[in-house]
TrEMBL record:
InterPro entries: AlpA (IPR010260), Prophage_regulatory_activator (IPR052931). The lineage of its organism: Bacteria, Pseudomonadati, Pseudomonadota, Alphaproteobacteria, Rhodobacterales. Signal peptide: none annotated. It holds the Pfam family Phage_AlpA. This is AlpA family transcriptional regulator.
Amino acid sequence: MREFRTLNFVETIACYQWHHSFNKEITMTDKILRCRDVQEVTGLSRSTIYRMMDRDDFPKATKLGVRAIGWRESVVQGWIGNRSNEAGNNSAPIVQG
């Protein structure tokens, strides 16, 4: 049979720091964006967001309740960053003359 003991304060802090050093995403706060927030951030209309979600061109929303959905801010910002990178890679070179 395995015995457990209560950790002292120093041991507790050490365990906490060790655990969170591997789980950085747990320590970050990630805001939930509602549809209007996503529209404002992306500049897309509601219907465009849903159409792009259906085509897997936009991150899927997370169900928050019976009639509520939202997107993690980090996911939307990552999508915007990827779109910016793709646009930068596909754009024609600027010719100065």
